[in-house]
C-alpha cells in the first residue's frame, strides 16, 4: 500500500510537470536568454595578467645553526649590517602594502585610483616549495592589467632594493660612529702605553737589566765552577808535591877524586839535593796559585750573591709592571682589532650600497603579457547555469501550482 502511495506521489509529480510543460519551457528559455544577454552584453569581460617574481636571498644556501656560547666580535658586528631575514610569506604580504601600491599609482598616473581599489584587483600568492611569487592583476582592459602587473613587479623590486640601501646606510652610519669611538679609545690606550714605557724604570728597562744580570750570573757561575776545579786540582798537586818532598832527601853524598883523597882524610862530602830544591820551588808556586784561586773563588761567590740579590729584587719589581704592560698592550691590540673590523664592515657596506646590493634582491622572473582570453565571465558556464536554474525554478513552480490547485479543490469539496 505504501508503495502504491509512493508511485501515486511520483505520478502526480510527473503529471504536474507534464501539465505545466509550456510554462517550464518558457521559464527555462527565458532564464537561458537572460543569462546569455547578461554574460555577453551586461557583464564586462575581465582579463587576468600574471607576473612571476624571483626572491634571491644571500642566506638561502646557509642554514641558521645554534648560537655559539663563545663571544665572537665579528659575528656581532656582522649581525648589525645584515638585513632581517623575511619569510616568503612576508614578501607576499609586502607586495600588497599601501606603500608599494601607491608607488604604482604615482608611476602610472592613476589619479582616479586609491590603494584600496587597486588592492582589490591584485592577488599575490607564493608558489609552493619555490622562491617564486605569482602576482595576478584583473581588469577589463587587458593592456592595463598587463601594465599594472609589470609596474607592480618593478616597483616592488625597487622598493626592496631601496629598503636594503636604507638599512645598509643606517648600519654604515652606526658602524662608522662606533669605529670613530674605537679610534678615540685606541689613541687613549696607545697614549697610556707610551706614558708607561716613558717611565725610567718601566717593564722593558727592568726586563733588560734582568737579562743582563742573568747573563752575568751565568758567566760568574761558570767562572766559579772553573775556579773550584782549579782549587781542587792545585790542592791535589800540592798534596802530591808534599808527599814527594817528604820522600826526597835534602842533601846527597858524593865521592872525592883521587887527588882529593890524598890531601884529605875524609873520602865523601855532602851537597844540597837539586831535586828537593826543585820540588820545594814548585810547591811554593802551587801554593801561591792556590791562594790566588781561593781569593778569586771568594770574590766570585760574593759577586754572585750580590748579583743574585739584585736579580731577585728586579724580578719582584718587574712582576706588577710586566702585568700592567701586558694589560696596556692587550688594550691597544683589542681596540686596534675592533677598529679594523669595524672599518672593514663599513667599507663592505659602502661597496654594497654603491652597487645597490643587499642581502635580498627581487627579480622579475616572468613579466606579464597581454592576456587574450577573458578571465571572467565564463559565458558557457553562465549559460549552462542559467538553463539549469530556469529548469529547476520552473519545475518547482509547476509542482507548487499543482499542489495549490489540489488544495483549492479539496476545500471546495469540503465546503
UniProtKB/TrEMBL annotation:
Pfam families: GNVR
TM region positions: 23-47, 383-401
InterPro entries: Bact_polysacc_biosynth/exp (IPR050445), GNVR (IPR032807)
One GO MF term attached to the UniProt entry: protein tyrosine kinase activity
Residue ranges annotated for the Tyrosine-protein kinase G-rich domain, each copy included: 323-400
Lineage top rank: taxon: Bacteria
GO CC term, one of those recorded: plasma membrane
UniProt entry tagged with the keyword Transmembrane: yes
Coiled coil start-end: 172-199
Keyword Hydrolase appears in the UniProt entry: no
UniProt keyword list: Coiled coil, Membrane, Transmembrane, Transmembrane helix
Protein name per UniProt: Tyrosine-protein kinase G-rich domain-containing protein
Amino acid at each position: 500500500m505504501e508503495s502504491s502511495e509512493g508511485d501515486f506521489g511520483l505520478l502526480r509529480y510527473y503529471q504536474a510537470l507534464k501539465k505545466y510543460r509550456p510554462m517550464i519551457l518558457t521559464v527555462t528559455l527565458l532564464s537561458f536568454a537572460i543569462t546569455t544577454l547578461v554574460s555577453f552584453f551586461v557583464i564586462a569581460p575581465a582579463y587576468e595578467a600574471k607576473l612571476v617574481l624571483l626572491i634571491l636571498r644571500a642566506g638561502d644556501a646557509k642554514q641558521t645553526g645554534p648560537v655559539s656560547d663563545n663571544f665572537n666580535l665579528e659575528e656581532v658586528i656582522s649581525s648589525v649590517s645584515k638585513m632581517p631575514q623575511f619569510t616568503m610569506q612576508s614578501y607576499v604580504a609586502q607586495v600588497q602594502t599601501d606603500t608599494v601600491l601607491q608607488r604604482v599609482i604615482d608611476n602610472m598616473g592613476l589619479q582616479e585610483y586609491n590603494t584600496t581599489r587597486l588592492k582589490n584587483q591584485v592577488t599575490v600568492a607564493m608558489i609552493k616549495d619555490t622562491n617564486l611569487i605569482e602576482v595576478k592583476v584583473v581588469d577589463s582592459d587587458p593592456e592595463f592589467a598587463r601594465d599594472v602587473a609589470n609596474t607592480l613587479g618593478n616597483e616592488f623590486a625597487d622598493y626592496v632594493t631601496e629598503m636594503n640601501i636604507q638599512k645598509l646606510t643606517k648600519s654604515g652610519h652606526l658602524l662608522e660612529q662606533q669605529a670613530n669611538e674605537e679610534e678615540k679609545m685606541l689613541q687613549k690606550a696607545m697614549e697610556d702605553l707610551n706614558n708607561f714605557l716613558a717611565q725610567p724604570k718601566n717593564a722593558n728597562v727592568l726586563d733588560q737589566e734582568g737579562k743582563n744580570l742573568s747573563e752575568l750570573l751565568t758567566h760568574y757561575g761558570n767562572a766559579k765552577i772553573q775556579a773550584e776545579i782549579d782549587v781542587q786540582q792545585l790542592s791535589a798537586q800540592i798534596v802530591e808535591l808534599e808527599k814527594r818532598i817528604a820522600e826526597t832527601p835534602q842533601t846527597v853524598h858524593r865521592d872525592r877524586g883521587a887527588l882529593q883523597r890524598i890531601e884529605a882524610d875524609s873520602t865523601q862530602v855532602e851537597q844540597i839535593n837539586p831535586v828537593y830544591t826543585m820540588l820545594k820551588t814548585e810547591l811554593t808556586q802551587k801554593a801561591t796559585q792556590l791562594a790566588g784561586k781561593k781569593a778569586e773563588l771568594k770574590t766570585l761567590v760574593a759577586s754572585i750573591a750580590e748579583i743574585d740579590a739584585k736579580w731577585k729584587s728586579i724580578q719582584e719589581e718587574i712582576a706588577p709592571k710586566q702585568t700592567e704592560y701586558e694589560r696596556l698592550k692587550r688594550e691597544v691590540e683589542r681596540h686596534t682589532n675592533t677598529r679594523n673590523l669595524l672599518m672593514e664592515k663599513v667599507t663592505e657596506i659602502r661597496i654594497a650600497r654603491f652597487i645597490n646590493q643587499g642581502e635580498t634582491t627581487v627579480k622579475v622572473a616572468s613579466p606579464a603579457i597581454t592576456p587574450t582570453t577573458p578571465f571572467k565571465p565564463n559565458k558557457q558556464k553562465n549559460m549552462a547555469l542559467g538553463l539549469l536554474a530556469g529548469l529547476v525554478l520552473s519545475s518547482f513552480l509547476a509542482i507548487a501550482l499543482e499542489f495549490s490547485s489540489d488544495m483549492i479543490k479539496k476545500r471546495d469539496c469540503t465546503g
